[in-house]
Design goal:
The complex is a heterodimer of chains A (250) and B (432).
Chain A lengths: L1 E10 L2 E11 L4 E5 L6 H9 L5 E9 L2 E2 L5 H7 L1 E4 L6 E5 H15 L7 H14 L4 H5 L1 E2 L5 H15 L3 E5 L7 H14 L5 E5 L3 H6 L4 E6 L2 E6 L2 H9 L2 H7 L2
Parallel strand pairs in A: 3-10, 3-11, 6-9, 9-10
Antiparallel strand pairs in A: 1-2, 1-4, 4-5, 7-8, 11-12
Helix pairs in contact in A: 2-3, 6-7
Chain B lengths: L1 H6 L2 H12 L7 H14 L14 H4 L14 H5 L8 E6 L2 E3 L12 E5 H4 L3 H6 L10 H9 L4 E5 L9 E7 L5 E3 L2 E6 L4 E10 L6 E11 L4 E9 L4 E11 L4 E10 L2 E10 L5 E10 L4 E10 L5 E10 L4 E10 L7 E10 L5 E10 L5 E9 L3 H8 L5 H17 L6 H14 L2
Parallel strand pairs in B: 1-5, 4-7, 5-8, 6-9, 7-9, 8-10, 9-11, 10-12, 11-13, 12-14, 13-15, 14-16, 15-17, 16-18, 17-19, 18-20
Antiparallel strand pairs in B: 1-2, 3-4
The chains are: A alpha/beta (250), B alpha/beta (432).
Bound molecules: adenosine-5'-triphosphate and magnesium ion.
Magnesium ion binds next to helix 1 of chain A.
């Protein structure tokens, strides 16, 4: 589904990604861990199409398409979804209204008619339930005045509404209380199928107890320096990043 | 004579026009002469005039102008400007009240609508006419007072509550360059309640129209008045629109000004809070593009204690257009416990657009709460990216954000659903 080869990206002339390689197949869950500033959010922003980053080398293919050639909206329409580490507040734009526009633009891209109002409402209700999002939050302006945890939950609600093929969850667990973590992770698991894939970026093993990854990667200084089974996350939790630093000789 | 006219300045031409036509103006010759003198003293503003430095008045008034137009609009053209489902319609066509197109028969009890010529003998009219708009304070007030013709006098009796909004449609269509000086007086007596919509439209212009319109509004104690101005001038239309308001104790007045098009639009909104426990709301939205020039000057004059004023003006500036916001707030020595808030926010969409914003607070009382804020920025790239990352095209992301920006002003319209919907539609079209 996703194939990243030797990806280099920089911002303001500073290289952040220094040759990332990653293969994700349909039906898989990958976790990316790594110290602050190692480039995790940069990787997700580059995949989502943020224009501030300049890709200087490498390639990204998504379902046989050159992802880097696509506009951000076309990446979303192809099925890439990024749950932001820091979701922005958009006063005056209602959550529901913007999701309706998003859904219909995605459908138009695929040559489909706009969704019937009734079907939209049904989906809205169903997905709201899935992540136990308060109906009041769904109809408010996008993230405006939401608590940190509510914003994260709203990201997963949007993911549920748009039904993407590849979801990148950038520290969706940070800011969630214990119950919310369980609910949100439960929602993500319900959205999981053999046809879609998820990349979870996290600092904590906690989340991976709920969303169990097939592979854990460690991103360090702009490169994936180690990949392994889910036990790698446990090892990290125990030993911290020092053992990685030693291994890569930093 | 021809040659002589060509070398005359606009000011000279206006004075000559006054002299030759003053005998045919029906009322108040003395007052008009004083106004002309005040006009003559102040002169046509130029780029050096502090109050008008961002609008090129000289240019818009250049050339020869007529002072009335006999061009008739079709019933259909007039009808097309009626966007309220249910309203008392007052049509002012080329500066003159058009009784045929207006719907002012069988008015609700307590409401009176008269033409200015009918009103001259009215007691309330003579009591209030020209008492608030000071000819020495502004050249266009002076010019309007000297030349005023057409227009209407609207009177609401004590405790009259009019549910149906009154829609004053200013519509012009001229075939030679024309200056129109329309004048309205609205008197709302104690405890009365009413909503006014004044819309300005130009249709089918084949020459320049320069409209200098002045509306005086008297809001007596405990009255509640909402006043909306919708400005839809076309590219050949220039509009100077002055609204002079005086409020008495415990009254509530709110003004919404929507400037959607026009080559040059200057709004002067002056509110005097002459009583205690008064509430005033000033809301404005201007969407400018092309070479348009829009200038909003507001003045909120707190003269007595315990009053609140709240002002929000927002603008989106595209292309080479320019927008000005100048907000004066005076809090006089007696006006203790005043709350006065002002905010002006702008989105500049192009590098060639200009925005001039100037809050001017003069506070002479010590126990007051006043604040003002201005901001000018581009559309937020993080928000655009967020929306695009959800599948919205860049264009629809921007449209949605502009709409969200404008909706703060739009949504402050309360209880006028069809007006809200009409504006919503107009504004959405603009963002396409
Ligand atoms: N505009 C910029 N100019 C220079 N450096 C930048 C810029 N933006 C980001 N960086 C740097 O890029 C590096 C990677 O940042 P990134 O946000 O990808 O880290 P991260 O792995 O997501 O960290 P965290 O775990 O704290 O979320 C950081 O060192 C950051 O300071
Ligand atoms: Mg990060």
């Amino acid at each position: 589904m996703l194939s990243i080869k030797n990806l280099h990206a920089s911002i303001d002339g500073k290289e952040i990604l220094k040759g990332v390689n990653l293969e994700v197949k349909a039906g898989e869950i990958h976790a990316i861990m790594g110290p602050n500033g190692s480039g995790k959010s940069t990787l997700s922003a580059v995949l989502a199409g943020r224009e501030d980053y300049e890709v200087t080398e490498g390639s990204v293919t998504f379902n046989e398409k050159d992802l880097l050639e696509l506009l951000p909206e076309d990446r979303a329409r192809e099925g890439v979804f990024l749950a932001f580490q820091y979701p922005v507040e958009i006063p005056g734009v209602s959550n529901v209204n913007f999701l309706k526009i998003a859904l219909n633009e995605i459908r138009a891209y695929k040559g489909l008619e706009p969704m019937e109002a009734k079907d939209f409402l049904v989906r809205l209700k169903e997905k709201q339930k899935l992540v136990e999002l308060d109906g009041k939050l769904a109809s408010r302006s996008v993230n405006e005045g939401f608590s940190g945890g509510e914003k994260k939950r709203n990201e997963i609600f949007q993911m549920a509404m748009l039904e993407p093929k590849l979801s990148i969850l950038d520290e969706t667990d940070s800011g969630l209380d214990i119950d919310a973590l369980r609910i949100v992770a439960g929602g993500v698991n319900k959205l999981k199928s053999k046809d879609n894939a998820i990349i979870v970026i996290t600092h904590y093993q906690r989340l991976l107890d709920y969303i169990v990854p097939d592979v854990v990667h460690i991103l360090y200084n702009g490169k994936i320096v180690k990949s392994g089974p889910k036990e790698l996350a446990l090892e990290l939790e125990e030993k911290g990043y020092d053992f990685i630093k030693e291994q890569v000789g930093a | 004579m021809e040659a002589e006219l060509k070398t005359m300045t606009t000011k000279d031409k206006l004075i000559a026009e006054f002299e030759s036509s003053k005998n045919s103006l029906f009322d108040n010759i003395q007052l008009r002469e004083q106004a002309l003198e005040a006009f003559s003293k102040q002169g046509i503003p130029n780029r050096k005039s502090e109050e008008y430095k961002y609008v090129n008045i000289e240019l818009s008034m250049k050339g020869d102008f007529a002072f009335s137009s006999s061009k008739k609009l079709s019933a259909k053209q007039i009808e097309s400007t009626q966007f309220l489902k249910d309203a008392i319609i007052v049509v002012i066509e080329n500066g003159k009240f058009n009784s045929e197109s207006s719907k002012v028969n069988s008015l609700p009890k307590g409401l009176q609508i008269l033409t200015i010529s009918e009103a001259v003998s009215d007691e309330s009219y003579t009591k209030h006419y020209t008492k608030y708009a000071d000819i020495n304070s502004d050249v266009f007030i002076a010019l309007n007072t000297a030349f005023a013709s057409g227009g209407v006098f609207i009177h609401l009796a004590k405790s009259a509550v009019i549910e149906t909004p009154i829609h004053i449609i200013h519509i012009s269509s001229v075939s030679e360059n024309t200056i129109l000086n329309t004048r309205n007086l609205i008197v709302v007596e104690e405890n009365a309640q009413v909503q006014f919509v004044e819309s300005y439209e130009t249709v089918d212009l084949s020459a320049k129209s320069f409209t200098n319109t002045l509306t005086e509004i008297v809001v007596e104690a405990n009255a509640i008045v909402s006043h909306f101005k919708i400005q839809n001038e076309c590219e050949l239309g220039s509009l100077i629109s002055t609204t002079q308001v005086v409020q008495k104790g415990k009254s509530v007045f709110s003004n919404h000004t929507f400037t959607l098009s026009g080559s040059l639009v200057r709004n002067n909104l002056n509110i005097v809070l002459d009583g205690e426990h008064i509430e005033s709301h000033l809301n404005g939205l201007y969407l400018t593009n092309g070479n348009q020039v829009v200038d909003n000057h507001t003045l909120v004059d707190h003269r007595k204690p315990n009053c609140n004023s709240n002002e929000l003006y927002k603008g989106i500036i595209e292309d080479k257009s320019s927008a000005t916001f100048n907000g004066k707030i005076y809090v006089r020595k007696d006006a203790q416990k005043t709350n006065a808030f002002q905010s002006n926010k702008n989105i500049l969409l192009s590098d060639d657009g200009t925005i001039n914003t100037k809050p001017q607070l003069e506070i002479y009382a010590d126990d007051v709460k006043c604040s003002h804020g201005t901001s000018t920025g581009k559309l937020d790239v993080d928000k655009i990216f967020y929306l695009r990352a959800r599948g919205l095209s860049e264009a629809s992301a921007k449209k949605l954000l502009m709409h969200a920006f404008a909706s703060e002003v739009l949504d402050s319209i309360k209880g006028m659903e069809d007006l809200h919907n009409y504006l919503e539609e107009r504004i959405s079209k603009r963002f396409e």
